Amino acid sequence: MNFKKLEDLSYICKLLFSNYKIPITFIDDQGNILYELSQNHKSHPLFPSKIDFFRSLVEDDEFFPFPVFQSVMNIENVFYIQLPPNERLSGCIYVGPVLYSTFSDEMMHDLMEEFHLNKEKDQLVQYYQSLPVISNLHFMNMSMILYYMLFQKQLDLAEMIQMNKEVENNKIGMELVNRRFSEQQDNRKVKYDIAGEMKVYETIRAGKKGEIIQVLRELIETVEPGILSRKSHLRNQKNLAISGIALATRAAIEGGLYPEIAYTLSDFFIQNLEDLTDSNAVARLLMNAFLEFTDRVEKSNRNKYSKPIHVCQHYIFTHLYEEITLTKLAEIVAINPSYLSTLFKKEVGMSISEYVQSAKVNEAKNLLSYTSYSMSDIASLLNFYDQSHFIRVFKKYTGVTPKQFKNEVPRKSP
Predict the structure, then answer these.
(1) What pLDDT score does 330 carry?
(2) pTM of the predicted protein model
(3) Domains (range + CATH), the chain
(4) 385 φ/ψ sector (left φ>0, alpha ψ -120 to 50, else beta)
């Protein structure tokens, strides 16, 4: 879109800011701040000005036709969208900085240890505590919304992540910090076997449940130990996991999984990544995501259900946190409840109530593995009658109680 007025751009930014409360700054090609929206946002204490901070994130004379995400010192995050050069209104829109999780003493300790910035500790603490917190997924969605509002062009999440992986721009802006960061780059890179990575996605696309674990193990063996095993770079590992989940989502859809189901799965796994504080937990979640996508594709290809049954399954999967009844499902597919019950049992091999219980138990396993919810919280969230009912149903489908299952999770190898 060719903006002729700053008012057009400010209107779009104001709409976005009113919903997300994330700082938005527009800097023109001459380095002037023409528009800014923020809420109690402090300037970065290691940069002379906001302009210096933002301009340090952009590769000189390089134009990217998509939102570019940058992480500063592995803690704060910004994305920027460039307006096409040589237009009447040209420049760069910066959104952020934000944090993907609440700033903690542990993060401060890692920052001080890595960049030796003890003199600036108090200023940095105040700065980071002032930043808004938003999940990585919501921040990416925000970038796609802004991009569409600007150019009326749809973006694919997986493609956007992949394009960002190819943008090798990790400048921090301040020479001292940049030099220390650069000195450690060779030790931070993780080398991947591209052929092995593609084999993983091909296996997911083909729904080869029996092969996916071995394929993943072979890929893991090709990764050089390095930065991802260090606590201070957990954010980097999460970003790689998000990229993997996005690509697995596309592979599953290409393999025949309903897009609505695939994207719902993707959202669940990406959102739960932000709550993890251990690299092993991230690795477990990523492997389980790949296993889940492969299993779903395999079942989708094996069971060619009729449209009413597909509709019911999708509704069940996307409404696990609500009460799901035969009457409600019958209304959705416009079929007599008694006939729907018979048809579902004939095609799926279990009753609707059993299928709902099984789906809720699978969701409970995810909540037990990747969140801090208690058993009573999960029982309530998934609409079980009470905690005792939840435990009985969970044991019926897994052979163990929720407590036994949760106690086993940390000991499972990735």
Answers:
(1) 92
(2) 0.50
(3) 6-183 (no CATH), 187-302 (no CATH), 304-414 (1.10.10.60)
(4) alpha
